[in-house]
């Protein structure tokens, strides 16, 4: 029944069965069990850390963004080298090392840090809560001359993000910010309700205008819904927005970007890489007799101009794009990090090279291979891993 949608790339595993309890715990509180780092593979055949989460087991170690994992095992004496597994594309075995079934799994990793030093690091899986907007690197205000530019990095669309976003935009408004860098580079999506909050905070001059349309199949069109912007006391009126994205940017993240096209046009851009391409959403159908929840693709998204066919990513549909690489040699939130620096270039009116996509045109001539590919566990993946690519 799903094959036609899969063949058309309109359902790439978006319909699935999951745990009601696990999903609710993640969306309501950011609850997760793991080590607390994101992992990605590189062109050079390395396994690199792209992010470490505050309050997680990994945060208590020396592991930081940009560290390379060279070997892993249950002790320093029985480690398996990672490079051969990557070369053989043995991702299932690799994932098995890092995906704990529950708390209490200890692994020992040979880590090459950004300073070149090699260390053996022991880390034990445990429960921790995802902070959707990091207290340390999630918001910034950059100053360029007399201009103040707000930076916000949203990790996932979960309920705790609502208050974080409101606080961030209250600060932006107090500082007179009208230009934004919105960092969604690893954000795989989440709750529509949180996307609405985010949209409302961008709606200083858009109150009552169309934010997003949810459109079902023709036979269910009576259930179509239109969400309008509802400005809040903390809302700002953005004049320019640079959205940072990668192939891990999907679903609600793409919806936010697409929703602003009718209102900002050339005054917004996608910075980094082409996005994943998920302009559809699911309804939940619970089995009251057990813990099973069916997530079934039921609607597609469209903006005020009825644009929403970005199944191959947003890069070929947006007026402006700027290619940039994910610079793991610098911390997230650092204005000299390559993607953030390119976003600031766009906001300042400096030129950039468009993102290449598979669609041949004057601005997109050939697909570009991403610098980093997030490691994904398709077999043991949890709700948190589904929404936050590369999380372990």
Q: Can you walk me through this structure?
A:
With 392 residues, the chain is of the alpha+beta class. It is built from 9 helices and 20 strands. It has helices spanning 3-7, 20-29, 82-87, 91-98, 160-174, 192-201, 252-264, 338-347, 383-387, and strands spanning 16-19, 31-34, 37-42, 47-52, 68-73, 80-81, 106-112, 118-124, 126-129, 139-144, 147-153, 179-183, 210-215, 225-228, 240-245, 268-272, 280-286, 292-302, 321-323, 372-374. The strands form 4 sheets. Strands 3, 4, 5, 6, 7, 8 and 20 form a 7-stranded antiparallel beta sheet that branches. A 6-stranded mixed beta sheet has the order 10-11-12-15-16-19, sandwiched between helices. Strands 1, 13, 14, 17 and 18 form a 5-stranded antiparallel beta sheet that branches. β11 (147-153), α5 and β12 (179-183) form a beta-alpha-beta unit. α5 (160-174) packs parallel to α6 (192-201). The protein is globular. It starts with a helix and ends in a 5-residue tail after the last helix. Mean pLDDT is 93; it is low at 359-367.
pLDDT below 50 for ≥5 consecutive residues: which ranges? 359-367
Q: Determine the mean pLDDT.
A: 93
Gross geometry: globular
- Spatial gap, N to C terminus: 32 Å
- Supply Rg: 21 Å
Count of helix runs:
9
H-E order: HEHEEEEEHHEEEEEHEHEEEHEEEEHEH
Number of strands: 20
